[in-house]
Fold each of these.
Amino acid sequence: MGTQIKKFSEIAKGDAVLPSSWDFRAVVNDDNLTYFVWNTQTQEGLIVDPARDDLEAIEKLLAELKSVRWFAVIDTHTHADHISSAFELSSKLGVPLLMSSKSPSTRVQLRVSQEMSLPLKAAPIHFAHTPGHTPDGLLVSWGPFLFTGDTILYGDTGRDDLPGGDPSAHYESLQVFKKVAKADALVLFGHDSEGGRVTTWKTQLQMNASLTQDRETFVREASAFVGAAPKKLKESLYENLK
């Protein structure tokens, strides 16, 4: 089906409701998701996890959203399954590429070294380290949105069998999400095989068994999982680690 641009109403599930002062677009390519979110009153916006394969759709959105003032381009972690376009996009827009301080990339311009918040008029952006899937996983929360990267997926969690994966750290990161997330937060996942779905955090707590497992069970099951390597593993890591 190729790359698609979807509005919130197309992928919202259950009790997920977008507040009137916020807007949203998801770029969906296979199971990969890039997010454009902004506040309609202040016109502040964020771009999260953009992929190079989706540059045509991204350019289309940028042309459509000319009035939005993008604050930053964020990669929630170092991707192993697709090449990020975050650096190119941040350079084009003249805004910082933001990642965890644990990111090995030399292209990162604004690094999050601890749990912190950055003030914006619409709402502060909250960041916290969430390693496990990768060492540089980052929780990003802004207004109604909660970006999970690959730490949490729809009804599941991301794999820990790729380079840098750590099931014990992943379990602790899930506890960070539980501490930060509000019940009505709109959870935005890094991947979804069903073409993109948005739920509330309350819904994920009810349906996602990984979020309620004890440490021993989670670590045992996560450690036992071994999947096929992503098709673009070597290419993605080569480019994304620059």
Amino acid sequence: MISQNPDLKNILSKNKIPVKLNMEELFELKQGHCRDSADICGKIYKVLPSALKSKVNIKDLKDGAMLHDFGKVLIPAEILNKHGKLTDEEFKIMHLHSELGYQLLKNSGLNDEVLSLIRYHHDNINDKNFVPDINLQILNIADRYSALTEKRVYKNALSPQQALTVIYGDVQKGNVHPLLYKALVEAVTKEQKAAVENKNTSLV
């Protein structure tokens, strides 16, 4: 993928990123964050109003969610798993994972919608020059919720309620669509209710 893509080689060279694949990170993403993000996307989709649901391509959305962080396979481990705050340069490199993922996968046979989800999953409606479609907005909020509720080397996991509070701040800033936030809250509430019911049933 890298040797046949001059754009990708240029990005790596320009940012002094070594060509070293972090396969352990890729495995963990596949089993953890990416799978979780895809699951949340599906749950949000199920509770959307019919008018919004009809605009969602759930297959592309789930495929994009499973691959959205693929580019992290090229982010140096010392940056990806750094304990503490990233420097400006490190943050710049970390932010490149979306573009790196797109460049790695653009000739793999994925359709344009899935590639767009991978490339732009960190963009939001606050960007005046870019208005993401409904699929991208759902992935954006699902990715955010999953990341907030996941323990990482540089932070503890937030509770679902804490994560929803943080994301509500994004709603107030205009970065998250209120209807999508409402769907996320409903999906999380249903999941918690089902977990309690299953626990009670197992105790009977």
